[in-house]
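Fresh eyes needed here. Have a critical look at this protein's tokenised backbone.
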Amino acid sequence: MAERAGIERVHAGVTPEGKEEIVTALRAEGRCVAVIGEGVNDAAAPASADLGMAMGGGTDAAIGAADITLVREDMLAVVDAIRLTRRTLSTIRANLVWAFGYNVVTVPLAATGWLNPMVAAAAMSASSVLVVTNSLRLRAYAPGGRRTGTPPAPLASHDAGATEHGRTGPTGRKNDVLSGR
């Protein structure tokens, strides 16, 4: 399975300390490391990774050490979680740009008397409604197209140049997997 996914090295049957050492070594090489765990043995590795994920049915230690808890026992939930996180961050940035831009323009105008206080109050309310409405768009997010049977599209950061035969992609990065099984 690892070969089909373009993964060169698989680390299986590793002790909890060994998992943390592998994560630390990969990060020292400049790699971005994500670890998914579900048990007490997995708690240290997700905590030391760039992104730690825990399965919702896992132990409290793994869930507490993780950045994200996946409520579905489905590995495709990882893709959905990353996509939803990216969409959420994009929405937060858009809301901040709008709110700061609005305040940079209207507060000085209102303070100097160029803007009627009633108009400023109405505009502030409209600004708040805009930010909340923009945030509510996140509720429409649907996980990656599995209702129609189509697989989710690869993430933009996916190294599409990696092949099934263990060669590196155009970025020169190799693919690794750390498995607790």
About this structure: The first strand starts at residue 9 and ends at 11. Strands lie at 9-11, 34-37, 51-55, 68-70, 176-178. Residues 19 and 130 are 46 Å apart (CA to CA).
